[in-house]
Amino acid sequence: MTSLHPAASRRSRTPAADTACVQAVEPALEAAKETAKPSEVGAHLGWAVEGDRVVTHYFACLDPGYRGWRWSVTVTRAARAKNVTISETALMPGDEAIMPPPWVPWLERLRPGDMGPGDLLPTADDDTRLAPGFTEAEVEDGDVEAQWELGLGRARVLSAEGRDQAAERWYDGTAGPAAPIAVAAPAPCSTCGFFIPLSGELRLLFGVCANAYVPDDGRVVAADHGCGGHSEAVRVPSAAEAPPLILDELAFDAMPADAVAEVPEQVSEQAPEQAPEPAEDPVARDGQG
Predict the structure, then answer these.
(1) What 3-state class would DSSP assign to 238?
(2) d(Cα 180, Cα 174) in Å, to the nearest integer?
(3) What is the C-alpha separation between 29 and 286, in angstroms, rounded?
(4) CA 12, CA 41: separation in Å to the nearest integer?
(5) pLDDT along the chain (289 residues), means of 10
(6) β-pair partners for 260
(7) 151 near 133, Cβ under 8 Å?
(8) Nearest to residue 36, comparing CAs of 69, 85, 84, 3?
(9) Is 170:206 a contact under the CB 8 Å cutoff?
(10) What is the chain's alpha carbon radius of gyration, rounded to the nearest angstrom?
(11) Hey, CA dihedral for 251, 252, 253, 258, is it positive or negative?
(12) What is residue 143's DSSP assignment?
């Protein structure tokens, strides 16, 4: 007859410390020294009960490269046996041991800009940024471009989630309206002649810059981004316009116009000075004599 009452749950019993295993410090120390060669093993740090007739002894590690680590030697004894045997010896980290950071899969460690020439980046089959394309549809000759926009001929296309992630990343990055170069810009990119809007659903938000003299040339920028290279920001002066006259008054004294007009009259009234007679040549005078 089967009982309808559930069996009473058994309480977990804490194993008792085996006296022989606890006192086996010397055999455990010899096992630790044998494993640690040529390093030295330090003092006995204590012991812990692992199970019935199973005790682990801990010894200090004196190796400078493993500060805070300790040697762990597990000893055991069979039932109704008097001899204690060594079960395992290992170097284990203590509370003050220097540990490496938790391991992170490579896909989570990857950051934008990590790829270089020749690198290959595999994409998972369940990547939420991509969605299946329409590879089985027949492509008509006259509508290839429109069908390519829909994903025809490609195994996977950008999903709505992938598109939103890209838009958020671009808008919050250096090509968005909060960038320092955009804050100081005279006008947004949407009014610039070098702004080429994207096609599709991102047309109203983003475009490509085509100004060869600005840092964002050939890159995707937000429509409300901006820079000093705006096509209508500054009017180029005409080459026929004369530059403004720059008068340097430090090289001469400024005089009134009427004073300048009297200078020629005063010069004309003065008698011209007679040129001095040339000196007589002594050689010619001797020849005449």
Answers:
(1) coil
(2) 8
(3) 133
(4) 36
(5) 47 81 93 90 93 94 91 93 92 89 85 79 82 62 52 78 93 93 92 92 93 93 93 69 66 65 54 57 52
(6) none
(7) yes
(8) 69
(9) yes
(10) 47
(11) negative
(12) G
